[in-house]
Amino acid sequence: LGFGSGGAGAAPYTVQYLVVAGGGGGGGAYRAGGGGAGGMRFTPGKSFEVAPGTSFSITVGGGGAGVNKSTAVSAGPGTTAPSGSNAVFSTITSAGGGGGGNYGSPSPGADGGSGGGAGGPNNSDGTGGDGNVPPVSPSQGNPGGGGPDGSPPPSGRGGGGGGHSAAGAANNDQPTGGPGGNGSANSITAASVTYAGGGAGGGQVAAGGSGGSGGGGNGGQPGAAVAGTANLGGGGGGGGGPTAAISGAAGGSGVVLIRRLTASSASTSGTVTTSGDDTIHRFNADGTFIA
Predict the structure, then answer these.
(1) Interior angle at CA 233, CA 213 and CA 4, nearest 5
(2) What is the pLDDT of residues 222-233, one digit of tens each?
(3) Closest Cα partner for 31 from 191, 204, 159?
(4) Phi, then psi, of 272 in degrees rounded to 5
(5) Which of 179, 197, 199, 217 satisfies CB 3.0 to 4.6 Å to 183 for a cystine?
(6) Who's near 74: CB < 8 A, 6+ residues apart?
(7) Who's near 124: CB < 8 A, 6+ residues apart?
(8) pLDDT score for 147
(9) Cα Rg of the chain (Å, integer)
(10) Which DSSP symbol is given to 68?
(11) pTM (2 decimals)?
(12) Which long-range contacts (CB under 8 A, 24 or more apart) does 263-266 make?
């Protein structure tokens, strides 16, 4: 950890930030919903003021666990996978992505930064979780895909989790499990990277859907559900399979990035890289930023 070159009491300066929370876990078994992406909040330029020498605790949200197939069957309809954890920098909090619904009639997705997809219902409505919960402006995410899905097995499938730039797809609008909503590209690191994609819903006999861009995991069936990508905040893919053989996958962890003019401070907090006149501080895990 390093200290601002001016020390405490020196003139404040401004930073740019990107705060991405952990993605929600995918529901388990048969036709489960994908996890929602972690909330994504950022400034397009250096506009957030900090005082040199001030310490800021950084929280990097972890991804929600995927639901084991046997646990999902035992829990039955109406249950939801764990949501992701929040990410925090100073007054900026991004909400963890909502967990995907387990299979059943109905099994809604959970609310979150982006909402989890609904578990594929059997002749009943399934509701995707709401995104941008709690509400902030600009929005940190989108809702998960829901129902109704009037088709009983073998065509049952789960809804996709929401992503930062798009909602997850409803389970009855696709030949596969609902795809996850796409994330958004951001260039705070000087390279364009896409974050916060939603996990896809699983299929009972139909194939699992594709995860959204930005680390969303694919839904299960015929292969295993895929976890959200670490440090991108992607939602985990929902489980599937005609015999409840496929478990849900975990959401990906989040990330906190802070960019400043190199001349503003001598801080060495986090993992430090440079780009032109700027220094970038990356936190892939909890830590402290000293301005």
Answers:
(1) 120
(2) 999 999 999 999
(3) 204
(4) -105, 130
(5) 197
(6) none
(7) 105, 106, 147, 148
(8) 62
(9) 19
(10) P
(11) 0.93
(12) 264/4, 264/5, 264/13, 264/52, 265/2, 265/3, 265/4, 265/5, 265/6, 265/13, 265/52, 265/291, 266/2, 266/3, 266/4, 266/5
What integer best gives the mean pLDDT of the chain? 91
Closest CA to 157 of 128, 181, 178: 178
Q: At 80, list the tokens.
A: 């939801």
Task: Tell me, rounded to whole angstroms, the distance of Cα 196 from its chain centroid.
Answer: 5
Q: Among all chains, which residue has been given the structure tokens 């895990």?
A: 285
Q: Which two tokens stand for residue 117?
A: 């997809």
Peptide bond into 222 cis (omega under 30): yes
Question: Do residues 132 and 4 lie in contact, with contact meaning Cβ atoms separated by under 8 Å?
Answer: no
Q: In the chain, what is the straight-line distance between the N-terminal and C-terminal CA atoms, in Å? A: 10
Question: Tokens 């619904």 belong to which residue?
Answer: 101
DSSP character at residue 107: B
pLDDT digits 0-9 by tens, 180-224: 999 999 999 999 999 999 999 999 888 999 999 999 999 999 999
Q: Quick count: other Cβ atoms within 10 Å of Cβ 91?
A: 7
